Amino acid sequence: MKNLWYSIVSIVIISSILIFMTYQLNTKNHHSTKSSITIFNWGEYIDPALLKQFEQQTGIQVIYETFDANESMLTKIEQGGTTYDIAIPSEYMIEVMQEKSLLQPLQKDLLSNIKHIDPYFLNLPFDPHNQYSIPYFWGTVGIAYNPTLLDGQTFTSWDHLWDPSLRNEILLVDSAREVMGMGLNSLHYSLNSVDHQELEAAAHKLYQLKPNVKAVIGDEGVQLMIQNEASVALTWSGQAAQMMDENDEIEYVIPEEGSNIWFDNIVIPTTASNIEGAHAFINFLLDPKVAAQNAEYVGYATPNLTALQYIEDEIVSDERFYPKETVRQRLEVYRNLGLQHLGVYNEYFLAFKMAK
Asked: What pTM value is reported for the model?
């Protein structure tokens, strides 16, 4: 009986120790202190060397987590539990986060390097006066293609994707706004249309594209294009840049009807516990040399005007990735459509995928 009692006591003590250690570990991993910041970013969306550089310069430890969609990022921040000091949402999600009171106003006096941002990327409709956000990267949606696999075929219009010769050749990104947007743009409608007839017409046209679609796919589409396992892809400019860096035969074009121009931005959630450290990190990223190094690593265009002088001319002069104002004028920013209208987009897109 005594041995049984000792065994029970031992189990209780060991369990208590394990619970305490787990709590300490979770606290360390998921809660910022004044000597650390927790960053929530897209995957492969920063040069890891810069995180080390920031730690060495400031003594602030960086705890880094990633997400794969704006919506999953929003859900995790809403749920709480992790005190994220920095997040990198896209433009339409910033509007959503503002509506939900999830963002802290920025203290501009702590962001001396904001002067390096191109004015074109400031005071945009999703955050007038940049009260809550600072531009991080920007880019476009377009068509990546390999003419050597297509008998020299090129693309200037969305409509070229419907060519019968492209049967089972096209990769589409697994995203409702991009795919439905392609359908809308091909009919010269707005990417932010909430008109039922326009959305139905776009969905109907997408159904006609089905024979040409090889797969609706995620990031793995980059490798499929690089390895010549696909010849055409609806993709983002940064992914196209990765493809072209590994496969010299691949080209990228922004269709003449127009497309999406997107902006990912740095914000400080209301859950942040190290406000001063968060501002220090933002200001660090805004340093022109840091921004240039980050842009060359990630492959997307930087909104940091001063940083351009530190990036190879071959990159910044490439109008496919740094389009001129005349091209930008026919591009649209995604707006927050609201849950009801976004649900309609998702329903049409899901029906398209199921039919495929």
From this structure: 0.82
